[in-house]
C-alpha cells in the first residue's frame, strides 16, 4: 500500500487516517493493521518502519495490537508518572534540591537577553552611585530611625493602655450616678408630699382648735349671763 494508491486508500478509508484491516498469514494467524501518519506514530511512541521510494514516502503499517500495547494511558497520565518519579529522585537525593536552588539563583542570568543584562548592570551601578552620593543623608536617616525605635515605648505607654478600662469604669460610675439621682428625685418627691400633707394637717388642726376655742368662749359667756 502506498500513499499514492488511491483505490486501496479509498477501500480501507486511509484518507481519514482511521482505516483498519486484517491479514491472515500462512499459519492462519490474523494480524490487524491500521494507518498512522508519522506524527501520530511519534506521538504514540511507535517505532517507524518505512522508507523513501523516490519522492514518495512509504506509509507506515503497524499492528493495532502493538500500538495499543505501547500506549499506556493518556499523555497526561504519563506526565504525572514522570513527575512522581522525578519528585521521588529529588526527595531521595538532597543534593538535587540544593542544585535546583542554585540553578534558580542563576536562572535570571541564563535567560536574560544581553541588552537586558546591560540594563540590569546599569541599574545596579546607578543604585550604588546613588548610595555613595547620599551616604551622609542615609546615615542621618538611619540615626533618626534609631531614635524613633528607642522612643517607640512612648507611643503607647502603660497609662494610655489603661484608658479603655478607665473609660469602662467611668461609664459604670455614670450609670450608678444616674440611678442614685433617680432615687434621690423620687425620695425628694415623697418627702415633699409628706411635708405638704403634714402642713395641711397642721392647718386643719389649727382651724379646729380655733373653732373649739370659740365654742368654749361662747359657752362661758352664756353661763355668766345666767
Automatic annotation (TrEMBL):
Source superkingdom: Eukaryota
GO cellular component terms listed in the entry, alphabetical order: dynactin complex
Classification via Pfam families: Dynactin_p22 (PF07426)
GO biological process terms on file: cytoskeleton-dependent cytokinesis
Name of this protein: Uncharacterized protein
Organism listed in the record: Spumella elongata
Amino acid at each position: 500500500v502506498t500513499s499514492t494508491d488511491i483505490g486501496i486508500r479509498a477501500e480501507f478509508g486511509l484518507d481519514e487516517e482511521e482505516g483498519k484491516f486484517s491479514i491472515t498469514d500462512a499459519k492462519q494467524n490474523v494480524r490487524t493493521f491500521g494507518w498512522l501518519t508519522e506524527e501520530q506514530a511519534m506521538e504514540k511512541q511507535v517505532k517507524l518502519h518505512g522508507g523513501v521510494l523516490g519522492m514518495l514516502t512509504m506509509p507506515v503499517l503497524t499492528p493495532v495490537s502493538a500500538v495499543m500495547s505501547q500506549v499506556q494511558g493518556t499523555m497526561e497520565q504519563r506526565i504525572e508518572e514522570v513527575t512522581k518519579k522525578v519528585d521521588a529522585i529529588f526527595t531521595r537525593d538532597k543534593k538535587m534540591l540544593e542544585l535546583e536552588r542554585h540553578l534558580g539563583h542563576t536562572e535570571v542570568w541564563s535567560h536574560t537577553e544581553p541588552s537586558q543584562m546591560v540594563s540590569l548592570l546599569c541599574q545596579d551601578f546607578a543604585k550604588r552611585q546613588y548610595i555613595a552620593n547620599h551616604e551622609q543623608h542615609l546615615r542621618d536617616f538611619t540615626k533618626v530611625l534609631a531614635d524613633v525605635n528607642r522612643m517607640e515605648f512612648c507611643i503607647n505607654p502603660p497609662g494610655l493602655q489603661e484608658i479603655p478600662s478607665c473609660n469602662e469604669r467611668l461609664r459604670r460610675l455614670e450609670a450608678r450616678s444616674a440611678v442614685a439621682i433617680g432615687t434621690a428625685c423620687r425620695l425628694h418627691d415623697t418627702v415633699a408630699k409628706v411635708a405638704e400633707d403634714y402642713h395641711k394637717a397642721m392647718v386643719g388642726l389649727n382651724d379646729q382648735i380655733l373653732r373649739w376655742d370659740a365654742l368654749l368662749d361662747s359657752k362661758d359667756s352664756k353661763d355668766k349671763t345666767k
